[in-house]
Amino acid sequence: MTLTAAPLHAGRGTMIRAQRTARYIAGEVIVLITSLVVASMAIFGFLAVLPGDQAAILGGVEATPEQIEALRQQMGLNRPLWEQYLDWFGGVLTGDLSTSALDGRSVAAELGEKLQVTVPLGLLALLLSIVIAVPVGVLAAIYRDSAFGRVITALSQLSAAIPTFVLGLALVLLVALPTRLFPVQGFPADRWADPMEALRSLILPATAIAIGQSAVLVRFVRSVTIDILLKDWVRTGLAQGWPLRTVLVRHGARNAALPLLGIIGLEIAGILMGSVIVEQIFALPGVGGMLLSDVGNRDITSIQSTLFVLTALVMITTVVLTTLSRVLDPRVRSAS
Questions:
Q1: Would you list the DSSP string of 231-269?
Q2: β-sheet bridge partners, residue 106
Q3: pLDDT for 10-28, tens place per residue?
């Protein structure tokens, strides 16, 4: 190969990789859109076929059959199911999540208010789970053949088996009540006007979620770290006198961080489910409480829109993180 041909060959290779990446992203977007449409059909369909007449429930026991029929007409429940679905999903696509059949409130406005609590709670739980899992997973890998490493692995498996609500109650009894450092329940009425006070309200709930979620990450970090420790370049670095910590921090962290992105995307759904439970224990005014209240009131329209928004958030976040991992990590690209 001549000197002038080498840059041309490198440029052509870069262009081919860029085209492959663009095709991959376009494929992921198409799959995401298709998945969202299927998810919307599933959510709408399952809730629509639930037994019971929503108009009769909302009308109350004293409503006459004529009043119930009028309410059914007003809510559009007599229309074909496909027409109701297109009306609802068309509104969702334009940002209109409809209104509550119970009290006429805007679902989008209430959901936006509740997400001010649930999203920071989920992000804090995710951050804490990473902070816990990375050092614990690395230690479990380094000392994998010792009693200390087996104890770490056993504790991580135990924490994964404990239900989130048990962890929440334990934190209330063991931390919040004796120390009074964190509120047992509630969230500031003025939301994030005082960020520190709002953060204090979220620390224990986020910790309850993070303990369970970090157990999954610990196993992943341990596996990745063991794989790195067996690499030739790690042995070479150690043979040259480099401390193990230096080798892992300078080179191992970069190799482990990119695959971690894909796993974090899968963790989002678990954190969201944990948030629904923990919000009830700590009386947080988040999406979990809203969803359970709507289920109790059989507010189908609000449940449909809330579930679809949560599903879309999980899907979009997972696709973004998986795509980033694939684009940035040449090992994932090669495997693909």
A1: SHHHHHHHHTT--HHHHIIIIIHHHHHHHHHHHHHHHHH
A2: 99
A3: 667 777 777 888 888 898 8
Q: What is the pTM of this model?
A: 0.81
